[in-house]
Amino acid sequence: xxxxxxxxxxxxxxxxxxxxxxxxxxxxxxxxxxxxxxxxxxxxxxxxxxxxxxxxxxxxxxxxxxxxxxxxxxxxxxxxxxxxxxxxxxxxxxxxxxxxxxxxxxxxxxxxxxxxxxxxxxxxxxxxxxxxxxxxxxxxxxxxxxxxxxxxxxxxxxxxxxxxxxxxxxxxxxxxxxxxxxxxxxxxxxxxxxxxxx
Amino acid sequence: xxxxxxxxxxxxxxxxxxxxxxxxxxxxxxxxxxxxxxxxxxxxxxxxxxxxxxxxxxxxxxxxxxxxxxxxxxxxxxxxxxxxxxxxxxxxxxxxxxxxxxxxxxxxxxxxxxxxxxxxxxxxxxxxxxxxxxxxxxxxxxxxxxxxxxxxxxxxxxxxxxxxxxxxxxxxxxxxxxxxxxxxxxxxxxxxxxxxxx
Lengths: 198, 198
Hints:
Two copies of one chain form a homodimer.
Chain A: H1 4-13, H2 21-33, H3 36-52, E1 54-55, E2 62-63, H4 69-72, E3 77-84, H5 87-96, E4 101-105, H6 124-129, E5 135-138, H7 144-160, E6 166-168, H8 184-192, E7 195-196
Parallel strand pairs in A: 3-4, 3-5, 5-6
Antiparallel strand pairs in A: 1-2, 6-7
Helix pairs in contact in A: 1-2, 5-8
């Protein structure tokens, strides 16, 4: 029904999250109408992300550099680690302006039902980092997988470092809520109300 | 806040219709996680559309070739022209399976309030094509600009070809409705109930 080039673009746009046929068609038609320089900029941006975007060797956050700006920032408190599921959660937390420690990005959650085990996410390096800090704050979402991951991490950290304070971000988030959709006040409260795990 | 390459991708994704900051971020993160070959396919599809997608020299529909497959199809009735605003409307109509003539795509609507005049859309070549046909069906949407365009076209065609039957697609569509969002039954009825203009 569509010219081949447009059909292939629609097919690729459908790989974006939440994009169905109608939406992919609308996007493709709008791209077909774009000025050539706008499509070139789009292509360059995609290539840049593919070629240069990687993970910070310390915290696992997405980064254009070997070490991300947050981990390189000596003015931050490197003895306080805030553990999150994804890079989006780091952005959400930074927007509150309430946290001055550093992050650890798991890039996933432990989920036995989906076959995702602790060794499949960026978890081992957190155990190493935790050897020399004042506190680890577990800030995975309040979903089932988020709680499972926090419980698992709390247990492992307690076993390895019995003296280390490990806390869980407060349940200020509605149950089932995703961290990066929460507003800044909710996140701020969730940080200040964090409770120690046993 | 974001690595530069990701920020630029978000900026480009925001140019898609209806895409705000949150959605662009979600898309960008999903692209950052894609397999390299998927990003390459996406880039190739964008380049293909930029390099090969143009307009059919006869009807103005988007096409990879100089003449689109519908205009090249000799089994269709080339003496019956269905005039629409955009390529999406052609797809919507073809899905009904009820029309066997050819199309004319205006790629826009006359809209004096937006400063879009008859000479700004693909209209002149329709006047030429209409010299040798049995009927022209005006099927612009039932929006204000769609009605304005149909009225203008009806007048111009009547003046130039007083004997030519010119019809307007029936108001089976809800007023203010966009043609390419209508279901197939509504479009089929709108075709069969078309009424002659004066």
